[in-house]
Design brief:
The complex is a heterodimer.
Chain A lengths: L6 E6 L5 E5 L2 H7 L2 H12 L13 E4 L14 E6 L6 E6 L3 H7 L4 E5 L6 E6 L2 E6 L8 H12 L5 E5 L1 H4 L7 E3 L3 E3 L4 H7 L2 E7 L9 H15 L3 H9 L4 H8 L4 H4 L12 H7 L1 E5 L9 E5 L9 E3 L3 H4 L12 H14 L3 H16 L5 H4 L9 H13 L2 H6 L3 H7 L5 H4 L3 E2 L2 E2 L5 H4 L1 H9 L13 H4 L7 H6 L13 H18 L14 H12 L5 H21 L11 H5 L19 H12 L10 H6 L3 H7 L2 H9 L9
Parallel strand pairs in A: 1-6, 7-12
Antiparallel strand pairs in A: 1-2, 3-4, 3-6, 4-5, 7-8, 9-10, 9-12, 10-11, 13-14, 14-15, 16-17
Helix pairs in contact in A: 1-2, 2-24, 2-26, 7-25, 13-16, 21-24, 24-26, 24-28
Chain B lengths: L5 H9 L4 H10 L5 H10 L1 H10 L5 H18 L3
Helix pairs in contact in B: 1-5, 2-3, 3-4, 4-5
The chains are: A alpha+beta, B mainly alpha.
């Protein structure tokens, strides 16, 4: 078999049973891999109404047919489970080297189910798979536990997926890591792994990936690597990491200052990639086979945190527990918080989101120091933010309530409905640090409809509007409208989101990094089809390839629909709809006065998707077109039920 | 080849999001098939230009202009 390993590994931690299941040709062709394989398992094996922490629930780790090959950036893994944060479909994607190692060990996918009696870790040594005691590792930070496992197994070169203490404590937005620092940040996958008493999966793979046409494969890959040399986004990412976006965000007014109350700040450059590179950058890092190398490694060199080191930060790592919480004067406070969220294994976006929501509740008088355990939760209070990160990771004090996520915390605290106005979430998920009033109206639409909640900076990733202006002609070629590259316009945005969601889904099925494609544009969809066919020996057309992405999006959407989450929940935080972007002392800001015209784009988006405009459910026609007849059957009795519930107009913040 | 009048073209050009309505119009007029509409949605605007050139609705020069000017250029070409 070429491209794929051809089998998946299933481990039941309750019974200790370990099985290997072949993956048929039809199955691989229909779902390709990664997110596709995982979504299929989720839909068919995890009932939508099952609790995320039910031992019978699955957590899936999917690689793709390109994983471990010479194609650009092929070390990624998609982690999928029922999200304990949103209650709906959850997945996240991480870089590093572990994905390639899993593939070399001979697996396209790992499914974990059941719950071990005590903490364990999994040791995959090619075809030998063993469940080992992890009680001595429980409670340890990944940077401490990783070398302990390597020493125990006598191999420094193995790669390890791991959770931190937040996952063990089932913080609803804990994440999974591999190679210590590379995070699958969103939707709370780490909490589900922790609920199974699984600390880590250590992996050694000594095999290889068979390539159907090695010469063609190398020709394509060499051509693409040449293209990266002059790609403008690649250059920015390599030099300054994703922090290269800080000054862009500040100029274009999507910098989420004080929980999105403003879109810019005069001191934003304090935490920019340029400043980071000059002051605390220790070295740059790349994931497996990556021509970009956007990873950072940081060493704080002065102040009270001098000597601290950590992998990162990313833009979405530094912004949430920094500027979103009003912290910017001393960038070391921001870098230190990044290190803490890494150590505990917390989704930095959600962590900053819940803290900044609480800060705004405090600002508006909805909570007081009586609620916070004495913490003065004013924006800019770095000490209080640091204390809360510790509390959240340990599930203690007021942080223990915030560990439930912003919307659940508001309800647990008994706050009025007004509190949800300040949580900046969609479907229970905190939006990343990207204000759609400035980043782009396409992004705003994608936040509303994303199939894992309002976090879809990586789901549709409308870089055609973020960086499209750097690639003249591209918006015309794909969308027929060059003006779609302007963020603050609705031109072409409904089609853009439809197109980019499909494109990102197939990219996640291949499990290559989305920074290589439709972020930078060195790799376009025809290139992906070319290397997929060279690797597998198959004959995918571009239409068939993109249709797989559309199938995945619709399957994930149907999972939400089964939970009675549809058109009514396709919303963004009201702040973006109601509050014109204010100025904040940055005279070059470009989007003053903007609001997000979501309702101008949403009906047209439903038409592209062939989703019913009243329910937001995929039509029976669409599901059958995609070969999802079983899904059509599942949704049939739910359509009228949804409509009768929707008449009550009670939006579900989470399910 | 003119397949719509200037008023129809102007109306489409003024819409913020044009792709689906243009494709629906072309299907309705039997200029393109359902399959060609589907392929265009999945592949993007360049596929539409390719299909229309294959069907000789537009010539090579107009196709090249459409790839530079987008829907504004294309709709101008196919309207009279």
């Amino acid at each position: 078999m070429y491209g794929w390993a051809g089998q998946r590994l299933r481990v039941d931690l309750t019974t200790g049973e370990i099985t290997k299941e072949p993956l048929s040709y039809e199955y691989r062709r229909k779902w390709i891999g990664g997110r596709g394989f995982n979504s299929e398992v989720m839909y068919n094996e995890v009932p939508a109404n099952m609790d995320a922490f039910d031992p019978r629930a699955r957590v899936c780790f999917g690689t793709g047919p390109m994983s471990g090959t010479a194609a650009p950036s092929t070390g990624r893994v998609t982690v999928t489970c029922k999200s304990p944060l949103t209650g709906g479909f959850g997945d996240s994607n991480m870089g590093g080297h572990w994905g390639a190692e899993v593939k070399y060990a001979g697996y396209d996918q790992i499914i974990i189910q059941g719950r071990a009696k005590h903490p364990v870790y999994l040791w995959i040594d090619d075809d030998k798979v063993e469940i080992r005691d992890a009680r001595h590792l429980w409670g340890k930070f990944p940077r401490d536990a990783d070398p302990m496992i390597k020493q125990e197994l006598g191999d420094e070169d193995i790669h390890i997926m791991m959770i931190g203490p937040a996952g063990e404590n089932m913080v609803r937005f804990a994440c999974a890591f591999n190679d210590v620092w590379r995070a699958a940040g969103r939707t709370g996958t780490g909490a589900v792994i922790g609920s199974k008493n699984l600390k880590a999966i250590a992996t050694r793979g000594s095999g290889t990936v068979k390539i159907a046409d090695p010469k063609k494969m190398m020709d394509v890959c060499n051509r693409l690597r040449q293209a990266f040399k002059t790609d403008p986004m690649k250059i920015g990412l390599n030099m300054f990491g994703s922090l290269c976006l800080i000054n862009v965000a500040n100029r274009d007014g999507w910098f989420p200052w004080n929980n999105f109350q403003f879109g810019s700040h005069p001191l934003a450059n304090n935490v920019s990639g340029e400043s980071h590179a000059e002051t605390v950058l220790k070295h740059r890092e790349g994931c497996f086979a990556c021509p970009i190398a956007c990873g950072r490694f940081t060493e704080i060199r002065d102040g009270k945190y001098a000597g601290e080191t950590f992998g990162g930060p990313e833009y979405e790592h530094a912004v949430p527990t920094g500027p979103r919480c009003g912290i910017i004067e001393d960038p070391n406070d921001v870098w230190h918080n990044c290190r803490l969220t890494n150590d505990y294994g917390l989704d930095a976006i959600e962590c900053g989101g819940v803290i900044s929501s609480a800060m705004e509740w405090f600002q508006r008088g909805l909570i007081t120091t009586k609620d916070t355990g004495g913490l003065e939760l004013t924006f800019g209070n770095a000490d209080a933010t640091e204390k809360l990160i510790h509390q959240i990771g340990q599930r203690k004090g007021f942080g223990g309530i915030l560990a439930e996520g912003a919307d659940r915390a508001a309800d647990k605290l008994g706050l009025p409905k007004e509190a949800h106005y300040y949580t900046i979430t969609t479907r229970g998920m905190t939006l990343p640090g990207d204000d759609p009033r400035g980043l782009g109206f396409g992004y705003g639409l994608s936040f509303a409809v994303g199939t894992r909640g309002g976090c879809d900076h990586l789901r549709s990733l409308c870089c055609l509007e973020l960086s499209g202006a750097l690639y003249p002609g591209l918006n015309t070629k794909l969308l027929g409208d060059e003006s779609a590259n302007k963020p603050v316009t609705t031109n072409g945005k409904s089609y853009m989101v439809y197109y980019e969601e499909n494109q990102k889904a197939t990219t996640d099925c291949l499990n290559v990094c989305c920074f290589t494609t439709h972020w930078s544009y060195a790799v376009l969809t025809p290139d992906q089809v070319e290397y997929l066919n060279a690797a597998t020996g198959l004959d995918f057309t571009e239409e068939e390839f993109q249709e797989v992405g559309e199938r995945v999006v619709n399957l994930e959407r149907a999972y939400w629909n089964k939970l009675m989450s549809g058109a009514r929940e396709d919303r963004v935080p009201e702040r973006f709809l109601k509050e014109p972007m204010p100025e904040n002392g940055v005279d070059y800001q470009t989007n003053i006065g903007a609001t997000l015209p979501l309702n101008e784009m949403l009906p047209q988006y439903y038409k592209y998707r062939d989703w019913d405009s009243k329910t937001g459910f995929p039509t029976e026609r669409k599901l059958k077109q995609l070969g999802l007849e079983n899904v059509a059957k599942d949704l049939a009795p739910l359509r009228s039920k949804y409509l009768s519930e929707a008449e009550k107009k009670n939006v579900k913040y989470y399910v | 080849m003119a397949i719509m009048n200037k008023g129809q073209a102007k109306k489409l050009i003024e819409q913020p999001d044009k792709m689906l309505d243009v494709l629906n119009y072309l299907v309705e007029k039997k200029i393109i098939s359902d399959d060609e509409q589907r392929a265009t949605l999945l592949k993007g605007f360049s596929k539409l230009v390719e299909v229309l050139q294959e069907k000789k609705v537009i010539n090579a020069k107009a196709a090249k202009a459409a790839m530079q000017g987008g829907f504004a250029s294309l709709l101008e070409t196919i309207s009279a």
